[in-house]
Design goal:
Elements: E1 6-10, H1 17-28, E2 31-34, H2 36-47, H3 52-57, H4 72-81, H5 85-99, E3 105-109, H6 112-116, E4 122-127, H7 130-143, H8 150-166, E5 179-182, H9 188-204
Parallel strand pairs: 1-3, 1-4, 2-3, 4-5
Bound molecules: cytidine-5'-diphosphate.
Residues 13-14, 18, 35-36, 39-40, 75, 78-79, 82, 109-111, 160, 164 line the site of cytidine-5'-diphosphate.
C-alpha cells in the first residue's frame, strides 16, 4: 500500500522540517532523506578547494556523515552551491530514486514538492518566525558543542532564506498544493501530530 508513497517537506532554514520529517518517517516506517545534507556536503568540499559540479557528481553516502556539515559556515557555502543549476541537476536522480523506493519515503528540503517530487502524495511547507528559528538552531548547535552566537545563527538563517528564495533555479517556495504548518508557537509533539494526521488522511484517500 505504501509502495512509492512520498512525503515532501519543504521550508526555510531551521523551520523544524528535519525534526518533523524524522519523527513521521519513524512513525510510518518510511525511509528519510535530509536533502540539505547533499548541498552541505558539496559546500564542504568546495571549502576544501574542489570545483562545485565535480563535488556534486562525486558524492558518496559517507560524505553525508558527520557533525562538521552542521556549522553555519558550511550552511552558507551550501546555499551558494545550491544556486548553481548544474549542481542541482547532478543531484536530481539520486533524490528521485530515493523518493520512489518501495515502503514509502520522506524527503525534506527546499524544492521537493515543486521540482523533485511534484507528484508526491503529501506536500508540506513548514515555516516559523526567523527569530524563533534562530533560537532553536542556536540551542541545537550549542548542544552539539558547535561554537557560535545567536547573532551569527540569525544572520545565517536570514541570508540563506534570501538567497534560497531569490535564486532562479528551484527557488524556495511552497508548492501550490502544499499544506502550510507554522511551528512558531507549536511544540514538536503538536507539529508531528498535525503532520501525521495529514499523512493518514492522504493514505486513506
Ligand atoms: O537545516 P537547514 O534548514 O538549516 O538547512 P538544510 O536543509 O541543511 O539546507 C542547507 C542549504 O541547502 C539550504 O540553505 C539551501 O540553500 C540548500 N538546499 C536546497 O537548495 N535544496 C534542498 N532541497 C535542500 C537544501
Amino acid at each position: 500500500m505504501t509502495k512509492g508513497f512520498t512525503v515532501a517537506i519543504d521550508g526555510p532554514a531551521a523551520s523544524g522540517k528535519g525534526t518533523i520529517s524524522k519523527a513521521v518517517a519513524a512513525h510510518f516506517g518510511f525511509a528519510y532523506l535530509d536533502t540539505g545534507l547533499l548541498y552541505r556536503a558539496v559546500g564542504a568540499k568546495v571549502m576544501l578547494g574542489i570545483e562545485p559540479l565535480k563535488a556534486a557528481q562525486a558524492l558518496v553516502p559517507e560524505d553525508l556523515d558527520g557533525e562538521a556539515l552542521r556549522t553555519p559556515e558550511v550552511a552558507q557555502e551550501a546555499s551558494k552551491v545550491a544556486a548553481l543549476p548544474d549542481v542541482r541537476a547532478a543531484l536530481v536522480d539520486f533524490q528521485r530514486s530515493f523518493a520512489a523506493r518501495a515502503g514509502g519515503a520522506v524527503l525534506d528540503g527546499r524544492d521537493i514538492g515543486t521540482v523533485i517530487c511534484p507528484a508526491a502524495q503529501v506536500k508540506l511547507f513548514v515555516i516559523a518566525d526567523s527569530v524563533v528559528r534562530a533560537r532553536r538552531r542556536f540551542a541545537e548547535l550549542t548542544s552539539k558543542g558547535i561554537k557560535t552566537t545567536l547573532e551569527e545563527v540569525l544572520d545565517d538563517v536570514q541570508a540563506r532564506d534570501a538567497r534560497d528564495m531569490g535564486r532562479a533555479d528551484a527557488p524556495l517556495k511552497a508548492a501550490a498544493d502544499a499544506i502550510e504548518i507554522d511551528t512558531s508557537a507549536l511544540s514538536i509533539e503538536d507539529a508531528v501530530a498535525q503532520t501525521i494526521a495529514v499523512i493518514e488522511a492522504a493514505m486513506a484517500r
